[in-house]
Design a protein that fits this description.
Layout lengths: L1 H8 L23 H16 L1 H10 L5 H22 L2 H6 L16 H8 L13 H4 L4 H11 L6 E7 H13 L2 E7 L6 E12 L2 E8 H7 L7 E6 L3 H4 L1 E8 L7 H15 L8 H11 L6 H9 L3
Antiparallel strand pairs: 1-6, 2-3, 3-4, 4-5, 5-6
Length: about 300
C-alpha cells in the first residue's frame, strides 16, 4: 500500500521552458511563421485590388493578373541590375556604405581657419570675434577701436588691449607662478576679500585666467565655480604688437564688473612688473609659489593699496 502511494505521487519533470523549449515530435516540419504572414498579406492585397489589377492587365495587353505580376517582376529585376552596374565597383567590393568625407587639408589655409582648427572644443578663438584676414591689414588704433566696440554692448563684459612687451612679461611670470591670490577691498567696509586666480594655456594663441572666491576654492577645490574668466588672444601679437583681452563676469557670484576690473588691474601690476625689479610684488609671487610660510596676506593688501 505504501509503495503504490509513493509511485502515484511521483511525476516526471517537464522538459520545457526557456532552457529546453517545447517538446517536438520526431519528423515535425518547422515553418517560418513570418513567411506565412507575409504570404497571407500579399494574397489579401491582391484580392482587394483584383478588379483594378485586371483592368491594368487588359490595358497592358495581358490575359491575367499573374502575367501582369510576372512582367513587373521582370522589370524590377532589370532596374536593380542596372543600378548595380552604375554603382562604383570599389564600393561593391568593400562596403555598401559610402566612404567618409576626406579631411580638409591644412596647406593653404588662412590664419582664421588655422585658429579655428587649433582651438579646443568650447574655447573661442579670436577668429570667432573678428575676421582676421580683414583685421590684419588695419592699423593698431583701428583694431583697438573695433575690439572695444565689439564688447561695449554687454554689461558683464571686460575688455582691454595689452602691448606685446607688457603681455610678454605677464606671460613669463604666469608660467612661473600659475596660481596666486589677490585682495578685493569692499566699498564702505574695512574688510578685504581674498580671491584665488589660476592661469591656463589651452591653445597656442590663447591664455585664460579664472577668478574664484578663495573660501569657495578651499571648500570645493577644482569643482568650485569661478565668478570671472578672462581670455587673452595673441594672434596679432607679433604682426601688430597687440594682445586682445576679453572677459566675462558671471552674475550672482558675488562680484560685479567694477570689482572684476580691480582684480584684473591687480593681475597686471603683480605679473607685469619689471622682472629685474626687486619690489615686494615679485617677492610675494615667489613666496606664494614656493609655499613659503613667511607669506603674509597683510603685505599683499599693502602692495595692492599702492595701486589706488
Amino acid at each position: 500500500m505504501f509503495a503504490i502511494r509513493l509511485r502515484s505521487s511521483f511525476h516526471a519533470p517537464k522538459l520545457c521552458g526557456p532552457r529546453f523549449g517545447p517538446l517536438q515530435r520526431r519528423g515535425a516540419r518547422v515553418v517560418d511563421s513570418r513567411f506565412l504572414v507575409t504570404h497571407q498579406l500579399a494574397d489579401s492585397v491582391i484580392e482587394k485590388y483584383r478588379d483594378k489589377l485586371q483592368r491594368k492587365a487588359r490595358q497592358e495587353g495581358l490575359a491575367s493578373v499573374d502575367e501582369l505580376k510576372a512582367v513587373y517582376r521582370a522589370r524590377i529585376q532589370a532596374e536593380q541590375k542596372a543600378e548595380a552596374r552604375i554603382a562604383s565597383p570599389d564600393l561593391q567590393r568593400t562596403s555598401p556604405f559610402p566612404p567618409p568625407p576626406a579631411a580638409p587639408t591644412v596647406a593653404g589655409s588662412s590664419p582664421s581657419s588655422e585658429a579655428k582648427q587649433s582651438a579646443p572644443l568650447g574655447l573661442r578663438s579670436l577668429s570667432s570675434y573678428l575676421d582676421l584676414d580683414k583685421t590684419s591689414v588695419l592699423p593698431p588704433k583701428e583694431i583697438e577701436y573695433i575690439w572695444r566696440l565689439r564688447h561695449a554692448s554687454s554689461p558683464t563684459s571686460l575688455c582691454a588691449i595689452l602691448p606685446s612687451p607688457t603681455f610678454s612679461r605677464i606671460q613669463r611670470a604666469a608660467r612661473k607662478h600659475p596660481q596666486f591670490i589677490l585682495p578685493l577691498p569692499r566699498e564702505g567696509s574695512a574688510a578685504v576679500e581674498i580671491h584665488f586666480m589660476q592661469w591656463a594655456f589651452p591653445a597656442p594663441h590663447t591664455v585664460t585666467v579664472v577668478f574664484t572666491h578663495l573660501a569657495e576654492y578651499k571648500l570645493r577645490g577644482e569643482f568650485s565655480q569661478p565668478h570671472t574668466t578672462i581670455t587673452m588672444h595673441t594672434e596679432l601679437m607679433h604682426e601688430k604688437g597687440l594682445v586682445l583681452m576679453q572677459g566675462q563676469v558671471v552674475e550672482g557670484r558675488g562680484v560685479n564688473v567694477e570689482e572684476a576690473r580691480w582684480l584684473v588691474l591687480c593681475l597686471q601690476k603683480f605679473y607685469g612688473g619689471d622682472e629685474k625689479d626687486g619690489s615686494g610684488r615679485k617677492r610675494l609671487l615667489e613666496m606664494f609659489s614656493q609655499g613659503n610660510g613667511a607669506f603674509k596676506v597683510e603685505e599683499l593688501v599693502e602692495e595692492a593699496e599702492k595701486f589706488v
